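Journal club side-thread
Mid-discussion, someone asked how the predicted structure for our own chain would compare to the paper's figures. Pasting it here so we can look after the session.
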Amino acid sequence: MVKLKEIKDFLESLVPLSAQDTWDNSGLQVGWEEAEVKTVGFALTVSRSVIEEAVSKGVDLIITHHPLTISGVKSFVPDVYPSLLYLELIKRGISVYSLHTNLDVSPYGPTRFIADEIGLKGEPIVERPPYGVLGLLREPLTQKELLEKLVSFLPTDVFRTVNYKPTEKVEKVAVCSGSGASFIDLVYKRVQVYITGDVKYHDAMKALDLGLTIFDMGHFGTERLFFVSLKKVLLEAFPSLDYLILNEKSPFEVVRDVE
């Protein structure tokens, strides 16, 4: 029998809560530490559909990247977000544990996963906290080849580019999963391509004028696979548990024709 506290303590030994940003809310969101866990589900974000699937598949613990809330909850009523999620989780007896910015700066996080998949070795974009990876590809690729490689494993069918030059050879690359536009000023002189998500209009214009190529693979696209490295180490530590990847998709839909 595995208790929630054992999993919580293991995760916090691997990815300490002390590594998160001061504004963040990583850690146990909902749950009783003495509760028994048999099935673990992974989801980027808790939503109604994620909870419904967790209930139908007997999930005891949902491990997420995004906390249920960062700003806090002032009241628990069923028609207000996110309190409606808390109420449903408590009603169903499902625990939630989140690893957010502490995972972002960890070797087990989504940025490092993307870097490894494209053969990028390097150092953090910033040292404290150590966000992102900036360095050299194992072998140079054209921008088109790099983009094709990203599309081959990231769960996104929609992406945006700035200064895209398909045939240009690329060696110097930076990656920051989620929302990384704030680092444009730190990377544009040091890399040819910056891979991130959530780039806004004025940030894109800045990159355009600075000559920096950006591959905006989306917030969902760059973080959905946050669980890959965590799942491997959890399987080794708790082999008796069942592990499920809960179904999710980006909340955005691309509409090409209005009928």
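Post-session note: The chain has ten helices and 13 strands.
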